[in-house]
Design goal:
The chain has 121 residues and is mostly helical. The protein has one domain. The chain is built from 5 helices and no strands. Helix 1 packs antiparallel against helix 2, helix 1 packs antiparallel against helix 4 and helix 2 crosses helix 3. The longest helix is centred in the middle third of the chain and has 39 residues. The chain starts with a helix and ends with a helix.
Length: 121
């Protein structure tokens, strides 16, 4: 995965999740300093969650690839995209990600194809 793609994914996921939470924090009756600390902590927590979610999804994709390979099937780009779609749907169904985060997660995992392809060769 390229560094730029990773940054774009995490920025999108982080900004999407932070929006509503910041609104709640800003409306809470706290001092400016307490509010800034709350926002800082929230941003760190959301970034950590985004990284964890991506790593879990990536591990699940790799697990499914191994299952396909053991079954003697070839992994091409189309098959890889189907695996990614399955994993993203599972994460969405299990409420691990929202619909918008699932879309970004899927885009990031699909962009990993070039790296996966090299590892399959």
């Amino acid at each position: 995965m390229s560094h730029n793609n990773t940054n774009s994914f995490f920025k999108g996921l982080i900004f999407g999740a932070i929006g509503g939470a910041i609104a709640g924090i800003l409306l809470a009756p706290k001092s400016g300093e307490e509010t800034r600390e709350d926002i800082k902590k929230l941003a760190g927590d959301i970034k950590d969650k985004a990284v964890d979610t991506y790593e879990k999804a990536r591990a699940e994709v790799e697990k499914k690839i191994e299952q396909v390979k053991k079954a003697g099937e070839k992994i091409d780009e189309e098959k890889y995209k189907k695996i990614v779609a399955e994993v993203v749907d599972e994460f969405k169904r299990d409420a691990q990600v929202s619909s918008s985060s699932a879309k970004q997660l899927g885009e990031q995992l699909r962009s990993d194809w070039a790296m996966i392809k090299k590892s399959l060769a």
